[in-house]
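One thing: mind reviewing this one?
=====
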Amino acid sequence: MIRTSTALWLTLVAILGFAMFKVKYEVMDIEDELAKVNRAIVADQDSIHVLKAEWSFLSQPSRLAELSHRYLELAPVATKQLGQIENVPLRPGADPATVASAAAPAIAMTPAPAFPRTAPVLPAMTPNGATKLANAKPRIVP
């Protein structure tokens, strides 16, 4: 008869063999998935390269100038198109004397700010086109 310890060891070896078999095939499935993802990444990089080349062709200044001449029919601004600020009509119901006298004291009485002016924090573009804040702290403007 087989001793109990031998039966236990044979059972343990069989369980470990099955576990190793199972782990091996799970790893092979994960490697196949990784290969598919890597192929998709390469395909996306190739399409991005093609799109960048197409964009550089479409945004050539000479091509854009030719298209604007063909379709927009724009011309330089003529001198007769320029006007004076006095020729701009005021809003209906606004008296020029009242507007000038009301605006003058408001400008003269405006107090200077007690805190330093800060420049706005502008978003920076990341390579994928998203925006992020370039600096978390605003800069002090003299």
Remarks:
- Residues 4-58 form the longest helix (55 residues).
- The chain has a mean pLDDT of 79.
- The helical segments are 4-58, 61-71, 96-108.
- The CA atoms of residues 10 and 16 lie 10 Å apart.
